[in-house]
Amino acid sequence: IAVGDAFPVGARGDGSPSYMQGVYATDEEDNNETLSAGITYEGAVDTAAEGAYKVTYSVTDSDDNTETKSGMVLVGDAWVVDEGGEYAIRAHGFTKRLGQVRGTEAEAISYADAVAIDLRQTLAGGAKNPTFGETVAVVVKNDGGYGEVATGAYDIVFAVADKDSVTTTARADVVTGSLPSLHVPAVKQISKGAVFGDAQIREGVTAADEEDGDLTGKVTYSGTVAPGAEGFYVVAYTVLDSDRNVATASGVVLVGDEWVVGDGYAIRAYDFSRTLGKVTGTEEEMVTSARAEAIGIDPSVPETFGKSVTVVVKSDGGYSAKKLGVYGITLAVQAKMSETKTIKATIATGDAPKLNVPDVKQISVGAVFGEAEYRKDVSASDTEDGILTDQVTHDSPVDAQTEGWYRVNYSVTDSDRNTVTRSSVVLVGDDWLVRDGFAIRAYDFTKRVEEMLGTEDEMIGSARAQAICVDSSNTAYGTAVGVVVKSDGGYAAKKAGTYGITFAVVTAPMVTTKVTATVTEDPVVVDPPEPITIVKTKTKTKTKIVPKETTIVQNTIIREVTERVIERLRDVVPEPIKELLPEPTPVAAPIEPEIIAPEDTPVTVPQTPAPTWALSNLLMALVGLVFLFLVMRRKDVIEEAAEEAKVKARRYALGVFLTAAANIVFFACTEPMLTYKMVVADSWTIWSAIILAATVILSLLTAKTVMNDRAKEHDEDYEIA
Q1: pLDDT < 70 stretches in the chain
Q2: Which of 26, 637, 641, 698 has minimal CB crowding within 10 Å?
Q3: How far is CA 666 from CA 320, 340, 691, in A?
C-alpha cells in the first residue's frame, strides 16, 4: 500500500487492502467459514511511515489445535517484490555534493537507504522460514559510474545479496559545491569565577556557505564549561546548510590564570610546599605535588587536540637534594619540551601553626556578638607562613538572645596543609560564676510546703543549677559537669521560711554558688460565720459563746495576689526599698463559736448585714500598679541622668512605689471581695482616690525630671557643637 492509505480490519472478500484481506482457514472436521471467522492477529501497521510490518495470524479448531502464520505489509511505493514473492527491495534516489562522495558501495547503500526483506514463509522441504519478515543484505549490482566520484547523474542498481535477480534502481546526483565553512577559536582562557555564558561561548565563532551565505546564527554547540572550577573544557560546534551538509569543529576553554598557552599546547602547575620528612625528590612527586597538567590545543593535530598530554620535569632546581629551602622547578610538555611552566617548591620544617583562643568568654543576654566578638583575642601564626590570624575560620553557634553556654570551634591551616583546631566556650548571661576552670550558675526559687520533697535532686532542679568545664587543659572541656548541694541551709526540714542553698561542682567542691529558696504555706480560705442559734425557755435563757483566738482573713484571693505582686517587686526595686515591703500576712483557722444551751425551742437571731466591696477601689489600685510599671520601665533612663536629677528622680520613683503598694495593701485589707456583694463605691473610695492621685503626681514629676535633664544635656551638646 502507499504511504497514507487506509488499512482497516476490513472484510476478506471486498478487494480493499486490509488486515483480513485474503486471510482464511480450513479444517477437515470444522466448518471453514466458521473457522475463518475466528482468526485473530497481532501486529500494527503504521500507514503514515514507509516500512515493512509483520502481522501474525492465529486460529484454533474444535479440537484445540492452533495454527499461526505471518504476513508482511509493505508501506510505500518504492518497494519491489519479485515474481515468486520471495523478497522485497527498495531504494531512494539522492543528491550529494562532490565533496561528500567517496564512491564506495556502502556509501551508496547508505545514501539510498536501500533495504531488502525476506518474504519466504517456508523453505525447501516445507519447513517454516525463521527469518521471514527480517531484513537481508543488499549489494550494489551496478553503480552506473558512481564510483568514479565525479559530478553527474548515475543510475545505481541494487540487488538482494541472496538472489541478485531481485533488483531496484535509484538515481544518484553528484553536484558541485562544498561543505559550509565553520571557524572556531582553538583556545579561550578565562579567570576562575568569570562570566562564561552563551555570548562568551559564541564569541569568535563564524560559519558561511557558498549557497546559503552567513550561517553563524545557525551554529549550535555542546559541552559544559564550569567557570568556578579550574581546568580545561572542550566545546563542540556544528552547523548545517540547506543541503543538509554538516560541518563540525571544536574549541578548548581554559579556566584559571595559571595556564600558560604556547604553540600547540597549554600547561599549568602550582607552587607547593612539603615537609622535609615527606620529600622523596622524585619526578613523579614534583609533578603530582605541583598538580601539573598539559593539553593539546592545535586543531590540526586531532590526536592530541582537547586531550591531556604528559608533563615531565625539565629542571628540578635542586629539589631532589631533599634539603630545607625554596626551589624553582621547571615543568615541560613531553611532546614539546619548549612548552614550559616554572613553579616554586618549598621544603619546610613542617611545624603545625599555633592557634590561640580564649578558654571562655562571657556576655550579657542581648549583647552584640558578631564577627568582631567571635575573633576577639583570637590569633594564629606559623613558622613558615608568619601571621595567619586572618585565615582562622570558625562556626557560629552563639545565640546572644538566649541564656546558656555555647562551644565555638576555630580552625586554621598553613601552607603545608597542617590544620589546627581549638574551641572556646561562650557563656551568655550574667548569672554565670567562673572560677578555677569551671563555670556554675543557679537561680533563686520559691516552693510551697506541700510541694516539697526536700531532696538534693529537687533543689538542683528547682534552682536550675548547672556547671560547665571551661579549662581547655581538662579532658571535660566544653561539656556539662555534675552539680551537688554543698549546704541546704535547713531546706530539707520542709518548713516555711527562707533558706540559703549552696551548690558546688562535683569535681571542684570549692567552685560554688549560693541561691535563696523561699518556702511558703497556702493561706486558709474562711467561710462567713453561720447565724448564732439561741435556745430560749419559758423560765430562763442560758447562752454561752466561747470564741477561739484567731486572725480572720477577709479576702484570701486579693491578699494572695498582693503578696505575689510584692514578691515580684522584690526582684526589681533597689535594696533600700525592699526593706519597706511588708512581710507575708499570717493566716489562721476561722472562728468556730461554741454554743452551750439547754434543749428547747430554737430562736434564730439575725446577724449584721454582710459587708460589700467597691469596684472603683479595685480599679484605682490597678491603675496605680500601671503607673508603677511605667516608672520602673524607665529605670535605665533615670540611672543615666545627671547626679542631681538622678537623686530627685529616684525620690519621686520611691514615692510612686510606696503609694501604688499602699493602694494595693489598703484595698486588700478593707475590701472583702471573695464572698460579698460588689458595689460601685463605698466609704473607703475617697481614700483610694487620694492615694491614686499621689501616685499619678509623683509619676509625672519623675518623668518631668528626666525630660528636663535630657533637654539640658541636649542644650549643652548644642553649645559645644
Answers
A1: 11-15, 177, 522-611, 671-677, 716-718, 721
A2: 26
A3: 97, 98, 10
